[in-house]
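Researcher: Sequence recovery benchmark, item below. Answer with residues only.
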């Protein structure tokens, strides 16, 4: 099979990293670019990118390519995905796939009828530490999973298209679903709009899974971060998770690519639950900066396009499911109560079918 031609739509913010990733993958000669803002076309200068493959209108190139990579503000995603699929293209779209669950359900139906491939950009699934952690969970090395916690927060610019839960916290919601191969059945959340923008800048989300496992995700622009952000200029961030099992606990810090495995469990001794300390280790992990993770997920996407296989982060597990969770989070925050989820069998089973991405 010859290499596919690609149309990347969007060169702002995260689009710059997609541009770098395509070139890192050796796909620069097969790439076309479209962005409404001609000023952003200057992002191509470091790649000697030919001007005849850059446009302000997606329609200039849509008929020339095989796949479309959508890296635009979130409110454009549904329209652009629908248009690309109607033109017979496979689609990679940055998260969130759509702004609403109704759009996500509609887009999934369109995909099923068209036979096209779609992947959503949740790149933490492709971090080498995350794939190793999922293997540890699946192999029973941590024992029964009891609690997951994630911090995705720090001082940085506030996005103007979605709130902080929808842009940052959502990464770890998707990641926790993927790690557990499950969807939460109860959701409780608190959000705050300190900046009076109509979009939250702080949130704490609690998820309860059917087996009793509890997860907490904290996100926000007002809390301090530990490290200089790899993606956002002039920002400090914490992007870390903790997975606590009955036999061992894992800390994974994505900003410094470090995993710690604590061989600790509790035993009932002399009428008291006491910690029993085994070996703790810092496994040698591959490092992965954002461009490397994007390259990994784009390579996975292209492999699925070639083989006509379901992608890891597909429209159901990372589109419909995530859209419904986000809506439940906002409903919980507004109403001050726990939201009980009502999943279809297909939605519940979507995470069980999700492959580990090595």
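Model:
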């Amino acid at each position: 099979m010859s290499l596919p031609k690609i149309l990347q739509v969007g060169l702002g913010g995260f689009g710059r990293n997609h541009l770098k990733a395509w070139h890192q993958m050796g796909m620069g000669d097969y790439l076309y670019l479209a962005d409404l803002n001609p000023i952003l076309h200057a992002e191509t200068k470091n790649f000697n990118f030919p001007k005849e493959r850059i446009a302000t209108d997606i329609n200039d190139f849509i008929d020339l390519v095989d796949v479309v990579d959508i890296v635009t503000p979130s409110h454009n995603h549904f329209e652009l995905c629908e248009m690309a699929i109607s033109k017979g293209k496979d689609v990679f779209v940055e998260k969130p796939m759509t702004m609403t669950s109704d759009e996500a359900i509609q887009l999934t139906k369109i995909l099923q009828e068209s036979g096209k491939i779609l992947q959503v950009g949740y790149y933490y699934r492709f971090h080498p530490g995350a794939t190793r952690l999922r293997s540890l969970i699946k192999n029973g090395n941590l024992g029964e999973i009891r609690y997951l916690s994630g911090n995705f927060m720090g001082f940085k610019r506030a996005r103007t298209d979605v709130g902080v839960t929808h842009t940052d916290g959502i990464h770890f919601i998707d990641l926790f679903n993927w790690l557990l191969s499950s969807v939460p059945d109860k959701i409780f959340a608190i959000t705050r709009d300190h900046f009076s923008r109509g979009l939250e800048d702080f949130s704490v989300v609690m998820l309860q899974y059917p087996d009793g496992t509890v997860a907490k995700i904290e996100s926000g622009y007002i809390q301090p971060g530990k490290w200089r952000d790899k993606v956002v200029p002039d920002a400090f961030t914490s992007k870390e998770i903790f997975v606590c099992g009955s036999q061992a606990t894992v800390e994974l810090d994505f900003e410094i690519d470090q995993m710690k495995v604590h061989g600790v469990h509790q035993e009932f001794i002399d009428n008291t639950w006491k910690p029993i300390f085994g070996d703790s280790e810092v496994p040698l992990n591959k490092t992965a900066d954002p461009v490397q993770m994007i390259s990994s997920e784009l390579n996975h996407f292209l492999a699925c396009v070639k083989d006509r296989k379901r992608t890891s982060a597909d429209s159901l597990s990372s589109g419909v499911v995530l859209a419904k969770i986000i809506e439940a989070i906002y409903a919980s925050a507004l109403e001050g109560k726990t939201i009980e989820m009502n999943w279809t069998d297909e939605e519940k089973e979507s995470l069980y079918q999700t492959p580990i991405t090595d």
